[in-house]
Amino acid sequence: DLQLLQDIPAWLRSLRLHKYNPIFETWKWQEMVKLNDEALSEKGVSALGARRKMLKVFEQVKLHCEQNVG
């Protein structure tokens, strides 16, 4: 749901990753989905499971956007 992406804290809460709200609360989702594993780790997402979950969701969002352009 792209509407949910507009509210980063709610989006992270829906993914059960709300503990990372302080890191990303000022970000736009368009910036977040460009992050890779190393960048997430550098930002403070130290748990491998959380990074994998985020990266999986980022890929889904990018794929959805690619399929629905135009």
TrEMBL record:
GO CC term (a single one): P-body
Superkingdom: Eukaryota
Main location group: cytoplasm
Keyword hit for RNA-binding: yes
Keywords: Cytoplasm, RNA-binding
Location of the SAM domain: 4-64
Pfam families: SAM_2
UniProt xrefs under InterPro entries: SAM, SAM/pointed_sf, SMAUG/VTS1_RNA-bind
Statement: the UniProt record of this protein carries the keyword Cytoplasm: yes
Gene3D superfamilies: Transcription Factor, Ets-1
Protein name: SAM domain-containing protein
Organism in which the protein naturally occurs: Phycomyces blakesleeanus (strain ATCC 8743b / DSM 1359 / FGSC 10004 / NBRC 33097 / NRRL 1555)
